[in-house]
Amino acid sequence: MPLTILNIAFPFAQVSPDAVGGAEQVLAAIDSALVSLGHRSIVVAARGSRIRGTLLESCGPTSTLTGDVRAEQYSLHRAKIAEALDRFPIDIIHLHGVDFCEYLPASDVPVLATLHLPPDLYSDHIYRMDRVLLHCVSLVQHLRCPPSENLLAPIENGVEIPPPVAIRRRNYALSLGRICPEKGYHLAMDAARLAGVPFFLGGAAFPYETHLRYLDQQIRPREDRLRRWVGPLNRRRKLRALRGARCLLVPSTIAETSSLVTMEALACGTPVIAFRFGALPSLVDHGRTGFLVNSVEEMADAIKHADEIDPETCRAAARERFSVERMTQQYIDRYARIIDSRKRAGTRPTARIAITPQPS
């Protein structure tokens, strides 16, 4: 039976397959899968988003995110959510923003929230909300959450696995993602300099004061002829950069809940060198698909050994663990189970649904 799913994005980032943020990429993948399988996908997201389903645009691009601007954007987001609930027979509301409590609709429709970020970035009370089912994007993240009867088994992220392409690798290291302090890209630049290899950083800096200050104070002063920030990359350019790179550097200074770019690199046969932190040790098989390190110096040394990693071993690991088809099917199965449980429980709202963990 076809489902009608309302996915609600973080208001301040565009959703598309080329999005910089992982949550926006995951949402775009879910939307595409729903449409391909004959379901109806409704998405409330920022203006300029690119999806396959029905887009209800809320907030527009903005050069600043002051308190007043946020309040206005939240109001627009809430209005579009209300419009979606009025226009369409929604079966599930699926929330993706860290700030979802700001626009959580008052509705009898079952609500699911994916926690894309570290648990301590969310308000404590979300784990006690009867109306909202929660789940994480990795087991590592799940185990860090406070106890909650509303916390379902995690659904690990996945990415599109591109076909292998014959390409000559070049001697540069690469990092990709949002330009912000916790990503630690200045450390990757330092490691590449120590290793004596060129380095390219691809990604966007969102209009947050701390992000722009990090770009100006930590990234730009480290740029030179061989190491530079190249701005955001669309999917075609990103794949080309990953396929040609000696290695991908992931120098995050926070406990990442997942890492789509790590999965994308492995899918391209490119080894990953990451700090031994958060979910990265569960994604990188040390010595087989990359290296886990503890310092800039160790990262620099690992760069020199990246050519010892077999590209096909990386691709095989990605095919086995990180396919987008596995991820999206688990989401659709979860929607169906929530709806079925709701029907069996009658019309009263229910959040405490026992769902058997899905195999990765």
How does the overall form come out from the CA principal axes?
globular
- The helix tally amounts to 11
Total tally of structural domains? 2
Mean pLDDT figure:
92
CATH architecture of the largest domain: 3-Layer(aba) Sandwich
Structural classification: alpha/beta
Strand content: 15-25%
Radius of gyration: 20 Å
User: Alpha-carbon distance between the termini?
Assistant: 25 Å
Name of the level-1 CATH class of the largest domain: Alpha Beta
Main beta sheet strand tally, sense and closure? 6 strands, parallel
Classify the fold: give the CATH topology of the largest domain.
Rossmann fold
The helix/strand series, from N terminus to C terminus, equals EHEEHEEEHEHEHEHEHEHEHHH
Low-pLDDT parts are 347-360
- Please provide the count of β strands: 12
In CATH, the homologous superfamily of the largest domain goes by the name: Glycogen Phosphorylase B
Strand numbers in spatial order across the main sheet: 3-2-1-4-5-6
Percent helix? 25-40%
Structure description:
This protein is of the alpha/beta class. The protein has two domains: 4-158 and 323-344, 3-Layer(aba) Sandwich (Rossmann fold), CATH 3.40.50.2000; 173-321, Glycogen Phosphorylase B (Rossmann fold, 3-Layer(aba) Sandwich), CATH 3.40.50. The protein is 35% helix and 15% strand. The chain has a six-stranded parallel beta sheet, sandwiched between helices. The protein has a six-stranded parallel beta sheet with strand order 9-8-7-10-11-12, sandwiched between helices. Helix 7 packs across helix 10 (311-321). The protein starts with a strand and ends in a 16-residue tail after the last helix. 45% of the residues are buried.
